[in-house]
Amino acid sequence: MSKSFEDQLLREVNENVLKRFGRFVDHFNRELSSMHNLNVSQIKSSIEVPFDWPPIDCMDVKERTDLFELVQTCDAYWPPIDCMDVKERTDLFELVQTCGNMQLNKVVLVFAQLTQEMQYMCQSGAQRFCDPLVLYGEPIGDPNAEDLSSIAKFLPLLHDLSSYVSYCLKVVSNVVQQMNALIHISNIPVKKGSQNNYKELIPDFGANIRFDAVFEGMSDLAVTLINLDEIIANQMNLKRDFVNYKRIIELVSANSAKFDVGNETIKVKILFKLIDRIEKQLIDGEGIFKAYIDAMSNEGSVAKNTQMAEQFANYIRVSCSELEMSPELVSDTKFLSICALFVIYIWIFKREDKRLYKTVTDCQRKICVYLCHLKGNCSVIPDKFLANNLPRSMFDKKLMDSFSASRELILKQNFDKEVKQLNLKVTNWLVRFEQDISDTTDLNTNLIDILAKQQKVIEEGLENAKMITTLIKDCIALHLQSGRPMAKHDLLAICKAICILKGIQLAFHHKKGVLIPIIGHLAQYNCCVVLKMLSNTKTKIIADVKKYSEKKLDLLSAVILASNCLNGPILTNPRRILTSICLSIISTALSAEDIAKLLMLTRKLELFTKIHALVDIRTNCEFLYFNRAVLGIYFNNFFESESSNVHELRHFFSALSDSFTFINKCKDDEKRELLTKQFETETYEQFKSDFLDRICTEFETELRLQVHSDLQLDDQSPFKRHLHDFSALLTSEPIRFNDRLISIKSYVEEYLNEMAYNLTTIALHDWKTYESMLNLAKTKYGLEFVRSQLPTQTLEQGLDVLEITRNIHVFVSRYLYNLNNQMFIEKSSNNKHLNVLLIRHVANSIQTHGFGIINTTVNFTYQFLRKKFYIFSQFLYEEHIKSRLIKDLRYFRESEANKFPFERAEKLCKGIRKLGLTADGMSYLDQFRQLISQIGNVLGFVRMLRSGALHCSSNSVNFVPDLDDLTEVSFETMTSDESLSADTVTAGQNLDSILSTLNRNFTESTDYFKLLVDVFAQTFRDSKNYHLKNFYAILPATTYNFVEHLIISKEKMTRKNKVGAAFTDDGFAMGVAYILKLLNQFNDFDSLHWFSSVSEKIKTEINEANRQSALNANSDVKLTQTTSLTIKRLENLQKEFHLLEYSLTSSRILFKATPESVN
Q: Concatenated DSSP letters for 587-611?
């Protein structure tokens, strides 16, 4: 019977899931279709973005709408916020329906939605209000200047805060009423024959129902409100400005005629009422937390609900026990939330439970929590919080004195010793973390043991981070509250601890890619353990079928619902809430040991889902913004004793950078920019004056001592004076600080440049000393300095042709040629710019070195081409290549078509690729294409030389009236006819020689291309090199390979990583035209009609794609998207083939071989 009952239940659940999945698919398809029709234009402009991404924020809105149907809304609407939890499209309502028990679903859904809303309000309050409230009144400019515009700009935030508080009170009041009503109805006795049986509307939970998830949300929200209370209480500037602003508005409202308010009188009065309400609720009231308690104790029946009171007390006891056993698994404010819930428990139920009070204080003593640190640089002392909020009759002076004495011991402890021990502990942990996280499994290793070891080291890292951040904040807060100055050694120890803390954060961030799968495995393993326990519980419940009851059915439904939530991809926040509520329901069927184990496992699952966010929270050092006085002391000490430890300095600046995230929470844009700039400038100036300037002075002194080592100096023993390790500082990478990069090396270089220049101008005879100092710094430390002399050449000199000629093989492989603009551009560079070779650069080099460099370059080109053509011949002679080309030519000649098939070229590319690849992933055809491009680049360089020579000559003959008249005019003859002196005749002779040279250089038309063709043509056309005759047959495959390569290179131009990006490579077309000219194969290549074949092939595929798109226009969106991408790819391919054809035609013109006039 039990088996059939279980099968029927599972069958119903499966059918329900399938129906919901079908509805989801239909709804999802409708949404995709509407999105495509509305945004088709934007989709075409950003084709790389997938169309089927679901909206990322719609689930938040949907969940809040469901909640508004349960509780009353307040004045303001709160938009969704970015939370740390993972999102999924399945909401609470869909998750709850998986168990099929409608009575249970209603109760679970109500409490799950209310719990989720409390968590949302907790996150919203912390993110929207805490930091802006703290930043109010931060001095900008003159701190004494009173400006009420600040409070006027801040008033909307206060109004939002007032609405937020009101809404929190309504939500928590609803929570208490729901719990009270559920327990009340559960305890109503059932009368026989009664028609109004309320117990039929709700599940039979019995007397041991628990609300752990609800209590957790309630206590966390209480901590947020306590945080707001503390911030407002410490904001004297806000209170002062608010009172002054209220007085002005009150004065204007009372004397509206005097202030010429006009028709705005009613608005002014409404504004005054609003300000008065905000003042009573936030500024001068009893406190937000007190109103929070009052909202829950308004219902008189709640105080009489003893079962609900026991649930409060039991949760507090369990939480204290959990906190004592595993403090690293709970939040840092967990104990304060327990204290807040205990205060709520005392005032709601009007009890003075001293035994529970002793449990809470014993927990505080065991875990040594003497301060709880909140957002906004606020700290709360738990025992004082209890003393201020509990009845006076519960006050225990001896207990308070013992806690105060413990805090005094913290102030007296040796922080330096504590930090050294922590440093050793964290160093040991870092070694084990690096080893254990990177540990791989083998056949002899148990995976569970490895996961346990990895989990242990992760939890230890979190515990270390919590321990260090608690030590830092406790030390700072206790000194501030006691008004005692902090000793210098303690301050330096705190700064050291901050750097250690950032080291832990850096370790987690560096291993983030490795941690993600490990965390997934840990979550999966813990889920399996929980599911196993739930399965055993389910078996235990089903086993005793004879004692069937509604209560047992509800327990079984809760087990199924919890199992379904844990079977999700990851334990999201809604699933965690539902799981916690279901575990609370089935707690009656579990032992105390099983309950504790389940709580620990679910807590670990919650930890795994937000571990990186927890690391960032525990290593956040935004408190340094309020303690900037430590900067000068730390920088001075770093200069004196820690200057070689650059990594520590980098960690400290990383801690300072956390303040910018805090400043960015300011709502006033102008003030936020000013605060950011002020903090950045102030910190940099402090670092500059206390470290950079001093290290520059020390470095200058060190250079002077080494340059003057031949003189009689004082004792330079390192045991008698401190020596700095300048090499570590000067070789370190720049330190990032917000938008500023602080380069110690650049700063020292600028300082020495300025020092050497200024002192040399004062005492010119000391130039050699300062030049020696700079040379020593350059040789020993690798510093770079600007030259003090004026440049000897123009700034537009560019690349030197002579250097290019000497390294012609490097040049053609690293530069790309552009045929139309006649320029070379560098492929890639380690710098942030690329070098370009233009005609004017060539002209400058010719003007510097003379016209003889052209012949030298042509000779170097000839030697280079000889080597490249040898490789060219070897490639075509290779048997695999030659046989394939002969086969393709035979196929083309035997076929009836007069066009070379596109498929044959594509097949040849793939066949050559199968022959093998290089280490860089290049095929032999890729290397052959590069060889042709390098040959073309050489010819392009020769062409640029000729153009540069003409450019240089044209600049020289600007002052000659007409070159044609020079053949008829002779200055030597004219001076002789006039019987002038011999010197004048010699000058005329020299002028004639110069003009003759200019005329010859300007009009001489040496065809270097013809020379390079003639010198190789006979060899290429020799019968011994018959294998070269197949060259034109490989051009279809080579051009196809080139076009694909160029498309990929152009696509990389828009990417962030531009390695391999290019927009031109006309050297290939130039090289193809030159080789065809050498082999006299222009007619042979034209007979292939290759470009016509490509055009027809692409047009055919485009037409087919358009036809498919028209057929599937309204059926399949994904197929339409694929077709659009195909058409775009084909159009790009056609465009690149056209450009190659045009470039090849232009190159053929240079060799006087066009398709119409071929030799």
A: GGGS-HHHHHHHHHHHHHHHHHHTH
Lowest mean pLDDT among 248-262, 266-280, 997-1011: 997-1011
Nearest to 160 by CA among 662, 664, 660, 667: 667
DSSP 1064-1114: --THHHHHHHHHHHHHT-HHHHHHTTHHHHHHHHHHHHHHHHHHHHHHTTT
Q: Phi/psi class of residue 61: alpha, beta or left (left: φ > 0; alpha: ψ in -120 to 50)?
A: alpha
Which amino acid, 990? N
DSSP assigned state of 923: B
> Per-residue confidence at 74, pLDDT binned at 50, 70, 90?
very low
Quote the tokens at residue 693.
Answer: 């300037």
CA angle 289, 370, 634 (to 5 degrees): 110
The C-alpha atoms of residue 667 and residue 1153 are separated, in whole angstroms, by 71
- What is the spatial distance between Cα 863 and Cα 865, in angstroms, rounded to a whole number? 6
Rounded to whole angstroms, the Cα distance separating 312 from 219 reads 11
CB 843 within 8 A of CB 955: yes
Task: Region of 544 please: left (phi>0), alpha (psi -120 to 50) or beta.
Answer: beta
CA distance to 569, 633, 725, per residue, from 646 (Å): 43, 17, 10
Structure tokens at 243: 């009172």
Q: Is 771 exposed, middle or buried (0-12, 13-18, 19+ CB in 10 A)?
A: middle
- Report whether pLDDT(43) > 60: no
Higher pLDDT, residue 1035 or 262: 1035
Count CA atoms within 13 Å of residue 906 on its CB side: 7
Q: Domain residues of the chain, as ranges?
A: 1-26, 98-187+199-367, 622-781, 839-948+1008-1153
- Given a contact cutoff of 8 angstroms between Cβ atoms, the answer to whether 481 and 631 are in contact is no
Provide φ and ψ at 935, rounded to 5°: -65, -45
User: Of 472, 454, 460, which Cα lies nearest the Cα of 522?
Assistant: 454
Helix locations, 331-482, DSSP H: 334-349, 354-367, 382-389, 397-412, 415-437, 447-482
Tokens of 806: 């000497």
Number of Cβ within 10 Å of residue 1004's Cβ equals 11
Which tokens in the block code for residue 942?
């020769």
Q: How far apart are CA 534 and CA 583, in angstroms?
A: 9
Q: What percentage of the chain's residues is helix, strand, coil (to nearest 5)?
A: 75, 0, 25
**7-11, 338-342, 681-685, 688-692: least confident range:** 7-11
pLDDT tens digit sequence for 643-694: 778 888 899 999 999 888 888 888 788 888 888 898 999 999 999 999 999 9
Task: Select from 1033, 1016, 1034 the least CA-distant residue to 1025.
Answer: 1016
SS3 assignment, position 390: coil
The two tokens of residue 660 are 């910018």
Write down the mean pLDDT value for the chain: 79
Q: What is the pLDDT of residue 963?
A: 58
Q: Coil, helix or strand for 87?
A: coil
In this prediction, residue 150 has a pLDDT band, given cuts at 50, 70 and 90, of confident
Whether pLDDT at 428 is above 90: yes
- Amino acid at site 183: I
DSSP three-state, residue 836? strand
Helices (H), 263-396: 265-278, 288-297, 300-303, 306-325, 334-349, 354-367, 382-389
Interval 826-861: pLDDT, tens: 888 777 678 888 888 888 888 777 777 888 888 888
Kindly give, in sequence order, each residue whose CB lies less than 8 Å from that of residue 210, ignoring residues fewer than 6 positions away. 311, 314, 315, 584, 585, 587
CA distance 32 to 54: 8
Rounded to whole angstroms, the Cα distance separating 573 from 123 reads 13
Higher pLDDT, 24 or 87: 24
Q: Per the structure block, which two tokens stand in for 85?
A: 């939890």
- Residue 127 DSSP class: I
Amino acid at 844: N
What is the pLDDT, as a whole number, of residue 425?
92
